[in-house]
Design brief:
Number of strands: 27
Oligomer: single chain
Bound molecules: beta-D-glucopyranose
CATH class of one domain: Alpha Beta
Number of helices: 23
Shape: globular
Strand order of the largest sheet: 11-16-15-14-12-13
CATH topology of one domain: Rossmann fold
């Protein structure tokens, strides 16, 4: 068959598309129905097993041509060996896809995606994906289950950590950047890998923030707020898409033809393949969609091409074809899509394209990549509070780094970092020492367990991410911490969530800092020494108490393998923080879901009021967030001028320029994310009070003023109307510019 491939490559009069078609036609003409169905399976390699998966005899199945790809097998030598089995021992020698969750880096780990999004730096985000692709491909992986582009507005959902936050516009820009970073110039090179956009669709809308829960949303919300990032990734040429676990409009995504075929393929023109999520096909039995044969047929008929792990395609599709429940044409289409992906990746030309045994030593976790990860980590941190400019710290004296997150390696990378090698990752304290050398004396203590409830702590530190529960009593731990603190000039409290308190199946109903750590923080504050809270978290937390009582709070999310050095860079002023939140921090869990782009309602509050009877509000807490979307401080200050418009009106083909001056009024040079929001004042459907429509990250020197301009055209004013047509409606619009979604200056224009 490779001879056939070579022959086809030799003929230059045909287009690459038709060469591919001819090659696949020829290959498929030799395939039995069983072999075609064989291509539609993605079993686990047996290494990393979650959910309801059962282990299976994968090697035997590869020889029989019953496997299309393998999931989460790590190590180029092993991958090469398995590829050899597929190529040499199966009848047709069709190479396998090797897929892995390379979500925010491979061994060099970047911040969790939610943190990464807070850089608002598309170049940096693309670069992180590029480096992830270089490392993963060096180690044999040709396919990553990323980007995760699910919009989420409910901080209870643990997987908010894996996405880019609440905003569809920013989420779309990030989705595009990630796809570009992974696939590079179309997966031609051996360091470019195929992206898999997930989880299609609406997974982040799980009811009550409980993972895998039902999603029920209007088409309006779906198309205006949740669908744009998936669509953007498709437009960017993503090679594959993963079906979500949840149902959409009453039909599980994995069996939802409207979603997988009508919308994805027919409306959006997606030409890659769709893989189910892990056991997603057989989970439809529990959804109440029939028996295993029924749900496998439902899935493939809906347009899902590959079954991740559940083996239901393998076990039932031959029978379903015989019984006329699935047509051979449907199987052919799915098989063709998998073969096309392999062809596009160049695996027919060279099945060992990603199996260069020399590459890992040079490219995986190399100094150059770690340096980039350190810079990006520092850029992802969000300074939430800095009373009395306690930060940056001076590089002198003794600093006590105290808390359960201070000395853990396994928790630095954050959730979904399956390829990370924990023992290679510096702890926070090790990283800080590395960055600061002997300029600062760093001393440390654990101070408390993660929480007092040991059983909860165990659930929150699964997958080898244990912090090592300390058998000492809370008092003993605290006494030690206070002895250490007594010797210090400044205290850095390293507290928050463990990395597995967010991520998959880590939903929470209470979002405060766990009890033992709050007690530790109080005791540290009582010493009267300056305390900086270095907050680890995979989601927005409820930080009212901390905001009131702690002078400085730096939210570092989970910063990846270089967290420690990056924290030192920011705390000691080598890097001026510039991260801005991409998710709203609530005052109370009871406000959730909470997001800036809400509708006005018929009973909005009057300006300046937080409560009025018979208005849309609560009687106990204002509607305001604690920290709004887009918020983040710097060591310097920026002053915004008024919004100036190039004209007050335009026609539908026109363009208006909105300009503001931004002055750096502080002592430090710094980056500022200037944000543009628009409100459509009157429309045929109710519209949000503001929506992000543009942003620019600019470097402004101390004392300098920059003019920042945004072009506004009708494309930016379009939305999905009641009939789900993407339209523009003339009328008045407010344009708002500022440093976050709350503190904005505005001007009005009309489109005729
Ligand atoms: C997750 C996916 C992931 C897959 C494979 C599932 O549990 O939902 O995001 O890609 O496992 O590991």
């Amino acid at each position: 068959m490779f001879a056939a491939g070579t022959m086809l490559f030799a003929s230059c009069s045909t287009s690459p598309e038709s060469e591919m078609d001819a090659f696949i036609d020829d290959l498929m003409s030799k395939m039995t129905l069983e072999e075609k169905i064989g291509q539609l399976n993605l079993p686990a390699s047996g290494e990393i097993i979650t959910g309801q998966a059962k282990s299976s005899n994968v090697a035997e199945r590869i020889r029989k041509g019953q496997v299309g790809g393998l999931l989460n097998l790590k190590g180029v030598e092993r991958i090469r060996e398995v590829q050899k089995q597929a190529v040499e021992d199966s009848r047709l020698g069709i190479p396998l896809l090797f897929g892995m969750d390379v979500i925010h880096g491979y061994e060099t780990i970047f911040p969790i995606p939610l943190g990464l999004s807070c850089t608002w730096n598309m170049e940096a985000i693309e670069k992180s994906a590029r480096i992830a692709a270089i490392e993963a491909s060096a180690d044999g992986i040709c396919w990553t289950f990323s980007p995760m582009v699910d919009i989420c507005r409910d901080a209870r959902w643990g997987r908010i950590a894996e996405g880019s936050g609440e905003d569809p516009y920013l989420g779309s820009e990030i989705a595009r950047a990630m796809v570009r970073g992974y696939q590079g110039d179309g997966m031609k090179r051996n360091d470019e890998i195929m992206a898999c956009v997930k989880h299609f669709a609406l997974y982040g809308g799980a009811e009550a923030g409980r993972d895998y829960n039902t999603v029920d949303m209007s088409r309006q919300r779906m198309f205006n707020d949740f669908m744009p990032p998936y669509k953007a990734a498709v437009e960017e040429g993503a090679g594959s898409m993963m079906a979500a676990f949840n149902d959409v409009d009453g039909i599980p995504a994995t069996g939802n033809k409207w979603l997988m075929t009508d919308l994805l393929r027919n409306d959006w023109g997606f030409d890659g393949f769709v893989v189910s999520d892990y056991t997603g096909v057989t989970e439809m039995v529990d959804h109440g969609m029939g028996n295993i044969q029924d749900v496998a047929a439902l899935s493939v008929n809906a347009g899902v091409d590959m079954d991740m792990v559940s083996d239901s395609f393998m076990g039932t599709l031959v029978q379903s074809v015989k019984e006329g429940k699935v047509s051979e044409e449907t199987i052919n289409t799915a098989c063709r899509r998998i073969l096309e992906a392999k062809y596009k990746l160049g695996l027919f030309e060279d099945p060992y394209k990603y199996c260069d045994l020399e590459r890992p030593a040079k490219q995986v976790f190399c100094a150059e990549h770690r340096e980039v990860a350190r810079k990006i980590a520092a850029e992802s941190f969000v300074l939430l509070k800095n009373e009395g400019n306690i930060l940056p710290l001076q590089k002198k004296g003794t600093v006590a780094v105290i808390g359960p997150l201070a000395n853990t390696k396994a928790n630095m990378p954050g959730t979904w970092s399956v390829a990370a090698v924990a023992q290679n990752i510096p702890t926070l304290v090790e990283g800080m020492k590395h960055a600061l050398g002997d300029k600062v004396n760093i001393i440390t203590a654990k101070g408390s367990n993660l929480m007092s409830d040991a059983a909860y702590e165990e659930r929150a530190t699964m997958f080898g991410r244990s912090l090592g529960r300390d058998n000492r009593t809370d008092k003993q731990l605290l006494d030690e911490a206070l002895r250490v603190a007594a010797k210090a000039d400044v205290i850095v409290a390293a507290i928050g969530e463990s990395s597995e308190m967010s991520g998959e199946c880590s939903s929470r109903t209470e979002l405060e800092i766990p009890d033992t750590q709050r007690a530790l923080l109080k005791a540290l504050l009582n010493t009267g020494k300056p305390v900086v809270l270095t907050l680890f978290t995979g989601r927005p937390l409820v930080l009212n108490w901390e905001h009131k009582n702690v002078p400085a709070i730096l939210n570092v999310w989970f910063g990846g393998s270089e967290t420690g050095s990056a924290v030192a860079d920011v705390l000691f002023g080598d890097v001026n923080p510039s991260g801005k939140l991409t998710t709203t921090f609530p005052q109370s869990v009871g406000q959730l879901p909470l997001f800036y782009a809400h509708k006005n309602t018929g009973r909005p509050l009057a300006e300046g009021k937080w409560f009025e009877k018979f208005r849309s509000n609560y009687i106990d807490v204002s509607n305001d967030p604690l920290y709004p979307f887009g918020y983040g401080l710097s060591y310097t200050t920026f002053e915004y001028g008024d919004v100036k418009l190039s004209a007050n009106s335009m026609d539908a083909n026109g363009e208006i320029t909105a300009t503001v001056s931004v002055k750096n009024t502080g002592k430090y040079d710094g980056n500022e994310v200037v944000q543009l929001y628009i409100r459509d004042l009157v429309a045929s459907v109710t519209r949000p009070v503001k929506e992000l429509k543009g942003f620019e990250k600019v470097f402004i020197k101390a004392g300098e003023t920059k003019e920042i301009s945004f072009k506004i055209n009708v494309e930016m004013l379009k939305f999905y109307n009641f009939d789900i047509d993407y339209v523009f409606e003339p009328g008045d619009f407010d344009v708002m510019i500022g440093p976050n979604s709350r503190d904005l200056k505005s001007a009005r224009f009309t489109v005729k």
